[in-house]
Design a protein that fits this description.
Order of helices and strands of chain B: HHHHEHHHHEHHHHHHHHHH
Protein name (chain A): Oligopeptide transport system permease protein OppB
Largest sheet of chain A: none
CATH topology of one domain in chain A: MetI-like fold
Family (chain A): Belongs to the binding-protein-dependent transport system permease family.
Number of helices of chain A: 12
Oligomer: heterodimer
Largest interface: A-B, 48 and 42 residues
Membrane topology (chain A): Multi-pass membrane protein
Structural class of chain A: mainly alpha
Strand order of the largest sheet of chain B: 1-2
Number of strands of chain B: 2
Subcellular location (chain A): Cell membrane
Strand content of chain A: under 5%
Low-confidence stretches of chain B: 1-5
CATH superfamily of one domain in chain A: MetI-like
Low-confidence stretches of chain A: none
Largest sheet of chain B: 2 strands, antiparallel
Organism (chain A): Rubripirellula obstinata
Distance between the termini of chain B: 54 Å
CATH superfamily of the largest domain in chain B: MetI-like
Number of domains of chain B: 2
Shape of chain B: globular
Chain lengths: ~300, ~425
């Protein structure tokens, strides 16, 4: 138990270090960008410009700004004001968008794991059959076709062609389903390949042969003896999978017009809303770091040979 | 004395000598199979991977030779009657669009006309003596070469090599151009020719960015692995930290700065265009895994017995590194390269889709797919704008994936002499 606690403690320290690194990179980039956020707007009297700069914390030297902003984040969790969205703080934007993005990502991941593992297990057990070949071809297609092409074709097919799903909007399960499936599909394809390789390797192990030899039913052998060992590569892929889902959600939220943080981030980047973009990058770093740590932790729990460090 | 007896014994037993010679002959017949020959043989036996390699070589050749192929112009817009044309076999000729105002509506005659004008001006230049008049003529020659030249109206930013290839193509094929067998896009441009010109950009992004990541990753990993100890520990901790940075978002952040006009101008002063920076940035984020892989390999190899053996027989450190360590690491690196290129190409498509990657009038597959996806609507199905670029991208990625898998099997030393 103390193992786990010290692992979590160390990870937290690393997360702080990483966040500080990301913050510094983003801050330097933000200040390197030519012109202040208000320089492109129509000219205002100097006094008003000073007031605006004071409100957005742009007066003072760069070093002062760096520490002021950092202090705001650390002590109050305040990421500042959005430069483009009227009267919104970055925190408010994230608070509104995060639930949308998070539920989309969770649905996508669940879909990817369920579909990927099922396909991988089936194609490994029935190795060399038509089912195996066709599923693995589908997996390669899933890896090679860009997310946004898949999503556009799916919209055309399911929304306009077959009328199964609503065109856009957010809230009901039906509205989440199609974007989540499109988001999860490439990840599912990758997981299917990993699961198949893992299954094949674990099927040839000696303890499995023993289990078969002593006359256990096939399903018991597969679910009790083969599957746990085969899942290790899949579990270790979940960290990168999360990163991939988050990246994909940038595009999919755009295509499906979902009000998540992904579409906010893209808009912020395109409109040079630096504070909002920085807040988003920091949020994504936290999500990614937490997910990676959870994966490492669960890996150690599943596989007793792995030591936490 | 002993020499004599040796000679004597050899002469005494001719049968044994014969046998020895036979063995010598046989041993000369046997050829050593190097790691690479063995891998090559196994790769050839893997039919899918071998085909994929051929497909990739073909694609690369096509991309290199694109200016020689009689394609239509990739950038010449025709908004009057060529928007969203479905795939057709109707013949087309270069320079026939009325808006181009080519003489007789033909590229060849226009080219001739412009070139004879330039030649006439050059002759005139030779006869003139005053500085002012010469300058004026030089100006108008330059103008004719750059703005007025038909090539610059039909192609964008041709390099010297591509320029020569285009001339060659006009000399061989004249005004003939392949019909729009893949249809035309929303601005009346030929999709086939855009796919071919886009292949140049997409493949270059994939290869250059991967090479950048290769250089950074291999040197970083090799240094960490070779020195070991605290240097290794610190360097790998840095990599661990960087792994948790969501680089895609940082890249998007950076691309938006580079999109700013004043930054663009400043970069162009140094002769750097946005595309170059794009390559470098993508390369700079994909090196992490490569450095880990190389470090692990070097770490496990430097204490291997064959290295020890080489050292015992007096091989120099440089020879050990380049003759024994590098070839062994290279296999893994090549496999990883073939798997990084598709990832980079997908990333390019992704960024172009968001409007942060390659910007027009340059064209890439990602940009074509974005145009295609934008044109998809339920009212009218312009399927050719998605299907053909998508197929090109998917085919390349398939081939790279299969080749990577095949190479991994072929270069795996555990599989040596097995099949």
């Amino acid at each position: 138990m103390s193992d786990v606690l010290s692992f979590i403690g160390k990870r937290l320290l690393w997360m702080v270090a990483t966040l500080w690194l990301v913050y510094t990179i983003s801050f330097v980039l933000m200040r390197l960008a030519p012109g202040g956020p208000f320089s492109s707007e129509r000219k205002v009297p100097p006094a008003i410009e000073r007031q605006m700069e004071a409100r957005y914390n742009l007066d003072g030297s760069y070093v002062e700004q760096y520490f002021d902003y950092l202090g705001g984040i650390v002590t109050r969790g305040d990421l500042g004001w959005s430069l483009r969205l009227e009267d919104y703080s970055v925190n408010e934007v994230i608070a509104q968008g995060l639930p949308v993005s998070a539920s989309l990502a969770v649905f996508a991941l669940i879909f990817a794991i369920v579909l990927g593992v099922t396909a991988g297990v089936i194609s490994a057990v029935y190795r060399g059959t038509i089912a195996d070949t066709s599923m693995m071809i589908a997996a390669v297609v899933g890896i090679a076709v860009p997310n946004f092409v898949l999503a556009s074709v799916a919209i055309l097919l399911f929304v306009f062609g077959l009328n199964i799903f609503p065109a856009a909007g957010w809230g009901t399960l039906k509205q989440v389903l199609l974007p989540a499936i499109c988001l999860g599909a490439p990840v599912a394809a990758y997981i299917a390949r990993l699961a198949r390789t893992g299954m094949l390797e674990s099927l040839s192990r000696e303890h499995v042969r023993t289990a078969i030899a002593k006359g256990l039913p096939k399903s018991a052998v597969i679910f009790k003896h083969v599957l746990p060992g085969a899942m290790l590569p899949v579990v270790s892929y979940l960290g990168p999978a999360t990163a991939r889902v988050l990246t994909g959600s940038l595009v999919l939220e755009q295509i499906f017009a979902l009000p998540g943080i992904g579409s906010h981030f893209i808009n912020a980047a395109l409109q040079r809303d630096y504070t909002l973009a920085m807040g988003m990058v920091l949020t994504y770093t936290v999500i990614l770091f937490v997910m990676n740590s959870i994966v490492d932790l669960s890996y150690a729990i599943i596989d007793p040979r792995v030591k936490l460090q | 004395m002993s020499k004599l007896s040796e000679k004597g014994s050899l002469q005494a037993e001719p049968a044994e000598q014969l046998q020895l010679e036979q063995i010598l002959d046989e041993s000369q017949q046997i050829q050593g199979v190097s790691l690479w020959q063995d891998a090559w043989r196994r790769l050839k036996r893997n039919r899918v991977a071998y085909r994929s390699m051929h497909v990739l070589i073909g694609l690369a050749l096509l991309a290199i030779l694109t200016p020689l192929i009689p394609l239509q112009s990739p950038i010449d817009k025709d908004l009057n009657d060529r928007q969203f044309l479905p795939p057709t076999m109707a013949s087309s000729s270069m320079g026939s669009r009325a808006g181009l105002k080519f003489s007789e509506g033909r590229l060849t005659t226009q080219l001739q006309a412009v070139e004879s004008q330039i030649a006439a001006l050059e002759i005139e230049l030779g006869t003139l003596s005053t500085e002012e008049a010469r300058n004026q003529i030089e100006q108008s020659i330059k103008q004719k070469r750059v703005v007025g030249h038909p090539f610059n109206q039909l192609w964008h930013n041709l390099g010297p090599v591509s320029w020569t290839m285009c001339r060659l193509r006009v000399a061989v094929f004249g005004d003939y151009a392949i019909p729009s067998i893949c249809g035309t896009d929303q601005l009346g441009r030929d999709v086939l020719s855009r796919i071919m010109w886009g292949a140049r950009v997409s493949l270059t992004v994939g290869i250059v960015a991967t090479l950048v990541s290769l250089i950074i990753g291999v040197s970083y990993g090799a240094i960490a692995g070779y020195f070991g100890g605290w240097i290794d520990a610190v360097m790998m901790r840095i990599v661990d930290t960087l792994y948790s940075v969501p680089f895609i978002f940082v890249v998007i952040f950076i691309m938006t700065f580079l999109g700013e006009d004043s930054v663009k101008k400043r970069l162009e002063q140094f002769g750097i265009n946005q595309l170059t920076v794009f390559y470098l940035i993508i390369g700079a984020i994909y090196w992490l895994t490569m450095s880990r892989v190389v470090r692990g390999q070097v770490l496990s190899l430097k204490n291997e017995q064959f290295v020890e053996a080489a050292r015992t027989i007096g091989a120099s450190p440089a020879r050990i590194v380049f003759r024994h360590l590098v070839p062994n690491v290279l296999g893994v690196v090549i496999v990883y390269l073939t798997l990084t290129i598709p990832a980079v190409m997908l990333f390019e498509a992704f960024l172009s889709f968001l409007g942060l990657g390659v910007s027009p009038p340059d064209v890439s597959w990602g940009l074509l797919l974005k145009d295609g996806v934008d044109a998809l609507s339920s009212v009218k199905l312009f399927w050719w704008m998605v299907v053909f670029p998508g197929a090109a991208l998917a085919l390349t990625l398939f081939a790279l994936n299969f080749l990577g898998d095949g190479l991994r099997d072929a270069l795996d030393p555990k599989m040596k002499n097995k099949d």
